[in-house]
Design goal:
Blueprint (H helix, E strand, L loop, with lengths): L1 H18 L18 E3 L6 E3 L7 E4 L5 E7 L3 E6 L9 E6 L4 E3 L10 E8 L16 E14 L2 E8 L2 E7 L10 H13 L8 H41 L1
Antiparallel strand pairs: 1-4, 1-7, 2-3, 4-5, 5-6, 8-9, 9-10, 10-11
């Protein structure tokens, strides 16, 4: 009888284990650790520095674009901007750590790849005795745009041309498309930070209810079997006593 009860309980435990829901594993793409760390430039007041000093400002980075973070410091972070793909050239420097926002994804458009073409008028002697009719009195030149800065009221672009970095005067700020992917990321981060007590899903509730029902049925069955065995044993003992 005892051996039979052990077999019955073993079958009940096996049934519970089979019907019990397995722990779910979910991996978020944003939670995966990327080999490259980027940080977004949230506004137009983020400087790219040549060194870890306030006096080493070079240009203001284009807003909504990114820098690649090489190392993070308390005050300054070492960063890269743009890539070594002609006509573009990567630059390495620093940003203030508090001015940029790290993200845990690789942006689809991390850098502003923009070229600007400017026209220059050349001085001519003019007047009597000048040679030619001025066909080449103006020229156009194309530059790779990195950022901008103001010197007083005067606007300058920081650009690259023929391997040389320098400033050129500009009449107006450059107009370019803005990134929006970081806004969705920040909204998701804010939502996640509002609380970690999330209600269980309906699927989980359903599986929990099923498991409870199975356990209850198993317990009732076990009690019934035990009563049946004990009652049968008592009947046999009574019959033996009468004999």
């Amino acid at each position: 009888m005892i051996a039979a009860m052990k077999r019955i309980f073993s079958l009940l435990i096996l049934t519970i284990l089979i019907l019990a829901p397995a722990p779910s594993l979910s991996l978020s793409a944003n939670a995966a650790t990327a080999s490259e760390q980027y940080a977004v430039v949230p506004d137009g007041d983020v400087w790219f520095y040549a060194g870890e000093t306030e006096s080493s400002r070079v240009f203001l980075l284009p807003r909504t674009y990114y820098v690649k973070v090489l190392s993070t410091g308390e005050t300054y972070s070492r960063v890269e901007y743009l890539v070594d793909e002609p006509p573009y050239k990567k630059v390495t420097g620093y940003c203030k750590t508090a001015d940029i926002i790290p993200v845990d994804y690789i942006p689809a458009r991390p850098y502003l790849k923009k070229q600007v073409t400017l026209s220059y008028s050349l001085p001519t002697a003019g007047g009597a005795g000048s040679i030619g009719d001025g066909s080449f009195s103006s020229v156009e030149k194309t530059f790779v745009y990195y950022g901008q800065l103001y010197d007083g009221a005067k606007l300058y672009y920081y650009v690259l041309s023929d391997g040389t970095f320098d400033y050129i005067p500009a009449n107006s700020e450059l107009v370019f498309d803005q990134n929006t992917d970081y806004l969705e990321y920040l909204a998701a981060q804010e939502t996640a930070g509002q609380g970690t007590d999330t209600p269980p899903s309906s699927t989980t509730n359903g599986m929990d209810a099923t498991l409870i029902v199975v356990i209850c049925i198993a317990c009732v069955a076990a009690v019934a079997v035990a009563v049946f065995i004990i009652k049968g044993k008592k009947t046999v003992q009574d019959d033996q006593s009468e004999e």
